[in-house]
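Record 1 of the preview.
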Amino acid sequence: MKMDFDQAHKRLLYRHYGSIFFKNLKLTALVIILPLALMVVICYIAFQNYTSGEINIYGGKSVRAIQSEPDSIFKVCSTQMSFLLSDLDISVFLQTDRGDQMFYNARYIHKLILMQQNTLSYLSNVYIYSARSGQVISNMGITEPKNLYDLEWLDSYQANKDKGFWAEFRVLASYPLLGPQQVISLYKTVDYGQGSSGVIVFNIDYNRFIKCIAALRGEYDAALSIADESGSLVANIWGVPADYLNPANLSVLNAGKTYLQTDRLILYRAPIAGTHWQYVFAVPLDMFSTSVSSLRNMLIGIVIGGMAATVIIAVLISYKIYRPFRNIASVLGKPLDFAETAAFNKNEEGYIISAIKKTIQENATISQELKERIIMLKRAQNLALQMQINPHFLNNTLDAINWTAMRLTGGQNDASVMLGKLASMLRYCLESAETLVPLQQELDNLRTYLDLQMYRYKDKFTVEWDIADETRSVPVMKLLLQPLVENAIYHGIKPMEEQGLISVSSSLQGGCLLICVSDNGVGISPKTLDKLNNNMKFANLKEEQHIGMGNVNQRIRLFFGDEFGLDIIAARGKGTQVTVTLPIQ
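->
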């Protein structure tokens, strides 16, 4: 501790540290004064608004908790309604007129309804009614509405079918043995362009619905009910709604207030998703009195603790402020020396900033040089891979042989045609140093290569082309496809006794160009396929390696990046498929 104070004393003696020291004293004074002033203001505002905040927080949490379960039930039901209405058999059922021949499976629809009832435990039953045929399919089967014990839903549909979707609370008093049954009915009408064609009704068992919400009741929750737009009671969940549910209270809540405080209760409201109903939730006012009385003690503790923390922080800042500068200077290669006043020129900040700027500039220069070197290296590697094919002089030699063959036979023959096509391939490879060419040029070169192979293998294989027009102008690497087709011929088709098939296709997917070369040849064993895939993971090719799929894959990775390349799918006796993935340049 004594040594640290000696260090601070030295900084006072040397003027080049005086600037930081005195700036720190000003900062310390602000750190002490401003937080104290802000703390007093914050405490006053918090004390005034604490009750309102507590009411909002508790009410918001409670209402969201109450909303979550029922809203989830209604949304799930709405989703399942749409699912049923999208079914083809149900669609045909709803559009079949009375007396028309049926082309739907009523038993299948009945099973779908039973599946919904078994899946959604709170679902009492489901009606799917066709206004055209006058028939209804429910969990009891297919019949006419008059044969059901429950007929109120049909009246509701006739009166509200223009709404599209609505909900209502009903009491079913006509079910024998079961007695009165309370349900929440969700209606969704169907329109196929000629007016309403029917309706699907989900009847939710009210008692099961209440059980989902009852588990969310807190110890202070006084009452909860469901009201309609006018404020009339739809269903009481718990408590006594007469104490708070009246038009005057609801009009205030509907006006946009977060909550309403009465003489004994605090009321909240929240809409029910997909319906015209709303929750009205009540908690006793006196539940917040304990929290308000404890606020004063809490604020006093906060003020005292804040003052102590502010003083401690200010002291620590004043005492240790010089250490970051010493560490930064040390990292930058200029150790901190009190006797070396010229090094900082009476402003250590300026020295550090200039050193950092210089370092950043040097790093930027080095980075740019490195990028340029990487680009040059990739180009050199790519050209080296391409030049593995054959020396340039072969092109002239082939032309000479071609003319000799023509002179011997007095005109074109198979040998001269093959030599001409081979010379064309060599010119394609060697006459231009361009790495990227349009896909169409690469396909033309591939067709020339296949023509050569046709002369050799006659009817050994056929070729199918499926080239999307929008891909023909996309730039691809030169000599991309010929090695893949060569592998398909020599390793896939050649060992076969019967005629083979090679397919070449291209398409654009997800911002990438996909080229697929496949054959129906002998395929590749799993062991060989694993070895091939492992070899293609290496970043470099040896010079003595022949041109093949590994070469193509490495060229793609060198030029476009490791995320592009070849994907090989093969199986013994089932052929091989090679997919090339390239970015769209």
